[in-house]
Amino acid sequence: MRLFHLPRPITPEGVPSLVEMAESPHVPWRWGIVRGVEAPPSRLLWDEEPLLVGQVVARLPAREWAIWGLPEWRRTVGPQGFQDAPLEAVLSWVMRVSGGKGQIQSRGAPKRHYALPRLPAWEAVLHALRAWGKEDVLHELDGEALYIGPLEASPHARVRHRVAEEVAVLRRLAEGRYYLLLPPMPRLRIYHLLEVDHPGFRGVLRVMEHRLRLSGEEAFHEVYGRSA
User: Fold this and answer.
1) Which residue intervals of the chain are DSSP H helices?
2) Which domain holds residue 199?
């Protein structure tokens, strides 16, 4: 569907013919596809601001490159034993050993013994959170950092956007869950809030997943949200 036209993002390696960027709760980094540049793109810039920064993980057909953010958090860490360590000390150790940047808001009382197996750093974080019985979230922050902590304490949790006549499609998927098709919103991030004024829904949605697509033919944003 052709909805809205905007200048495409640029990379230091050239102007791509197609860009896709997405976020979901399944992995904590942004990922995307860049088409139309010969060299591996190091980052995507939108209006001189980083839209996607990361590591090329695959070259696809038709001069397409797959990029994942937060490469340091995919480095393997451990095994490591801890004694009388609070949760935040374990998470800080994982961050230090991986070399990644992060904002740690998770807290947990010291455990007498805790054994962390050998895992990619972000999975080591999940292992520790489960051991402490936490359901905290992980997601990428602007600035190539990983947020670890309660959703309500995330910098993303307080950011609001308003949409009304911009909504091209709105579908109710399940109780309290909706799909929206919108013009591009390059500053939209996972767990942001959307104030929606539409006959199909009037209220506030928490962004749980989204995908931005920009090309010479079309430009749109797909958003999956839940009632906040």
Assistant:
1) 87-98, 121-131
2) 18-69+156-227
> Quick check: 221 and 23 in contact, CB under 8 A?
no
CB 117 within 8 A of CB 79: yes
The whole-angstrom separation of Cα 105 and Cα 126 is 14
Token pair belonging to 201? 């829904």
* 167 and 145 in a common domain: no
pLDDT-derived band at 7, boundaries 50, 70, 90:
low
Smallest Cα–Cα separation from 146: which of 86, 100, 89, 99?
100
CA–chain centroid gap for 127, Å, is: 20
3-class SS at 153?
Answer: helix
> How many domains are there within the chain?
2
The answer to whether the beta carbons of residues 188 and 206 sit under 8 Å apart is no
**Integer CA distances (angstroms), 85 to 16, 79, 128, 134, 152, in order:** 48, 15, 11, 16, 25
For residue 5, being part of any structural domain is answered with: no
Per residue in 56-97, pLDDT (tens digit) is 998 888 789 999 999 999 999 999 999 999 999 999 999 999
What b/e sequence results for 169-197 when a residue is b if at least 16 CB atoms lie within 10 Å of its CB, and e otherwise?
ebeeeeeeebebbbebbbebbbbbbbebe
